[in-house]
Design a protein that fits this description.
Blueprint (H helix, E strand, L loop, with lengths): L5 E5 L3 H12 L3 E5 L3 H5 L1 H14 L5 H9 L1 E3 L3 H5 L4 E4 L5 H14 L5 E4 L6 H5 L8 E6 L8 E5 L6 H13 L3 E5 L8 H17 L5 H9 L11 H8 L1 H11 L11 H8 L16 H28 L1
Parallel strand pairs: 1-2, 1-4, 2-3, 4-5, 5-6, 7-8
Antiparallel strand pairs: 6-7
Helix pairs in contact: 11-12
Bound molecules: nicotinamide-adenine-dinucleotide.
């Protein structure tokens, strides 16, 4: 396998531009393409804006920002994007047909040994690769939003993905300071979204049943068990509590948990009322553009501080 130095990114939206930033910051040459010209042209500005919080915390210098931007080329089409690429990461809209179409077009242009990755949140990796000529080089790389800050990337093995490709991409993520995890079976939602949406299902159900206000449900996570989540995972917590206690709690509690296999009717009701969340100013909470900007800025600042505190605490031990 050739050394990976050149990466193509398809889709320059919320995830694509952040993924470009990760690799460009680590010296990789990036070609990025988006079918919407304005979105593509906005990439350098969006990356500059992402860097503000890093500059504020002294994690990068102005020179680092310029060096990163110099590594990024905006490509006009898939053929230009593919030239000499060792790895391609797709981050276009979450639509199976669209993703399939893009990868089958890509196969015409990319070098024979290029590795193809999809950032899909939930679509089966095997299904996306089904029509491809060379399926063994295809896999999932599920980044989390904001990708330039959240360390975890789920590396998803499809039915046809070769072990060499899987491990090469795992190592690539380590080289850019990510925390890759191996998803050995291609199951819907992979690891993180299954865990996350299981919790949301319960949270939404409790609002629906009038058990508590949305604000208090968010609080029980933010100021309760969520506070230990950046350092201790659920299975570590289960071990700390004791497997016998876990068993006893589950035996009593599970019959009462939400187990619907349909989305909550409350979500349907909110959609019907135009309450889509930040997009329309009202969801479970009320939002203004200022409030949204503030929470995103604070989120990024706090995430970076937590990351640096954890690293410090582990290194001091
Ligand atoms: N938003 C998240 O929190 C998140 C997290 C992890 C994974 N994902 C996944 O990442 C992917 C992208 O999500 P996003 O949130 O960045 O969406 P987005 O809508 O912000 O960006 C998608 C981009 O794809 C572009 N696009 C659409 N068709 C295209 C085509 N044919 N060629 C090139 N570009 C095209 C669009 O113009 C848009 O800029 C999705 O599969 C999504 O499920 C999203």
């Amino acid at each position: 396998m050739k050394e990976i130095t050149k990466i193509g990114i398809i889709g320059a939206g919320l995830m694509g531009h952040g993924i470009a930033q990760i690799f460009a910051s680590h010296g990789y040459s990036i070609n990025i393409f988006d079918s919407v010209g304005e979105t593509l042209a906005a990439v350098p500005g969006k990356i500059r804006s992402n860097f503000k919080v890093f500059l504020e915390l002294g994690l990068v210098s102005e020179t680092d920002v310029e060096e990163c931007l110099k590594k990024i080329t905006l490509s006009d089409n898939l053929e230009a994007l593919s030239e000499g690429a060792h790895v391609i990461i797709e981050a276009v809209s979450e639509n199976l047909d669209l993703k399939r179409k893009i990868f089958s077009e890509l196969e015409q242009y990319v070098p024979q040994d290029a590795i193809l990755c999809s950032n899909t949140s939930a679509i089966s990796i095997t299904e996306i690769s089904e029509g491809l000529k060379h399926k063994a080089r295809f896999l999932g790389t599920h980044f989390w939003n904001p990708p330039h800050i959240i360390p975890c990337v789920e590396i998803v093995k499809g039915k046809y993905t070769s072990d060499t490709v899987f491990e090469t991409i795992f190592e690539l993520m380590k080289n850019v300071n990510k925390e890759p995890v191996r998803v050995l079976k291609d199951i819907p939602g992979f690891l993180g979204n299954r865990l996350q949406h299981a919790m949301w299902r319960e949270a939404i159900s409790m609002v629906e049943k009038g058990v508590a206000e949305a604000e208090d449900i968010d609080k029980v996570v933010k100021y309760g068990f969520g506070l230990r989540c950046p350092f201790i995972g659920p299975l570590e917590t289960a071990d700390l509590a004791g497997i016998d206690l876990d068993y006893a709690v589950h035996e009593y509690l599970f019959p009462y948990l939400e187990n619907s296999s349909e989305p909550s009717p409350l979500l349907k009701e909110k959609i019907g009322a135009g309450m889509l969340g930040v997009k329309t100013g009202q969801g479970f909470h009320a939002w203004t553009p200022e409030k949204v900007e503030k929470i995103i800025n604070q989120r990024d600042l706090i995430l970076l501080k937590i990351k640096s505190e954890i690293n410090q605490a582990i290194n001091d031990k």
